[in-house]
Amino acid sequence: METEATAERKTINVVTLGASVRLVAIQFMMSNEQVPDGIPLKRPSAAPPMQRVTGVEVLKSTKDVDISPLVFRVDTNGDYQLVDAWKQPHATNWRMSVVRFIYCRNEFVRHDELYPNFVAKRDELATALASLVSDNLWTIQGHLNPYCESDGSRSGQDVLMLGCVGRKPVVETVTVVTGREDITSQLYTEDGEEVEGAVVTKTVDTIGYEERPIMVFAGGRDPVTNQGIGSKVPLSTLASKLRLAGDEVQLVKLR
Fold it and tell me: What are phi and psi of 192, to 5 degrees?
């Protein structure tokens, strides 16, 4: 396998993110302990549940995808705004949670209807999303679903739903020695009195933490010997990427 610098890549158009796409919803499924702090529980709704509508699959389930280029572009290109974020327990597995972030196209944002608690925490929630997509690869599947109004009628717009499972970290936190420090201790007698001039000095390492990219063999491992093939490269360089080029959502894959 070639590294990112030399590998040939294949670009697949997924969907056009035009004015007809009213919402972009990015949904993650992860273990409870992996959910970032500060994400609120989904608010209960007094409205009756709407009938489930059938959408169109626009992206088949694809492993090890870096979705950060798409998310960062949607977040900054000026066409969409983050309007909600929440978590809720998984319906059948209590060890798992569903976390969803929702972007709305500008012309449909109703600022007076945004929850005040969400508005107050929007920057914090955007940071949580950035961490989820920049520190991990995901198995991702995409659907284009009809957008329905509160009465269940179809508006003519769509919702791009991106489902992300199978979290694979691309960075790890490691312990590092940041320096050395002298620690001096006074010696005492059995009666608890100081021994004049009796001190002991010990030099110890000071410990810190830093994030480093997870490294893998560029060619994987031999299936028989399990030996690494090729040089080690950051895992992120071997990933497929989901990006926004103009109005086109594209999947860029290694051939």
Answer: 85, 15
Backbone angles phi, psi at 154, to 5 degrees: -85, 135
Residue 213's contacts (CB-CB under 8 Å, 6 or more residues apart) are 170, 171, 234, 235, 236
Give pLDDT, residue 178: 85
92/114 same-domain check: yes
Say yes or no: 188 and 94 in one domain. no
For 23-73, how does the pLDDT look when each residue is reduced to its tens digit (9 = 90+)? Answer: 999 999 999 999 999 999 998 765 545 456 678 999 999 999 999 999 999
Same domain, 85 and 182: no
Q: Tell whether 2 is covered by a domain.
A: no
Residue 70, token pair as written in the block: 């798409």
Distance from C-alpha of 144 to C-alpha of 158, rounded to nearest angstrom: 6
- Reported confidence tier of residue 5, pLDDT bands at 50, 70, 90: very low
Owning domain of residue 93: 9-170+214-254
Residue 186 is encoded by which pair of tokens? Answer: 């006074």
Residue 174 pairs in a beta bridge with 210
238 close to 230: Cβ distance less than 8 angstroms: no
Does residue 131 form part of some domain? yes
Comparing CA positions, the residue from 132, 219, 225, 121 lying closest to residue 170 is 132
Residue 229 lies inside a defined structural domain of this protein: yes
Mean pLDDT, range 176-195, rounded to an integer: 84
As to burial, measured by CB atoms within 10 angstroms (0-12 exposed, 13-18 middle, 19+ buried), residue 94 is exposed
pLDDT computed for residue 4 by the predictor? 45
**200 is a domain residue:** yes
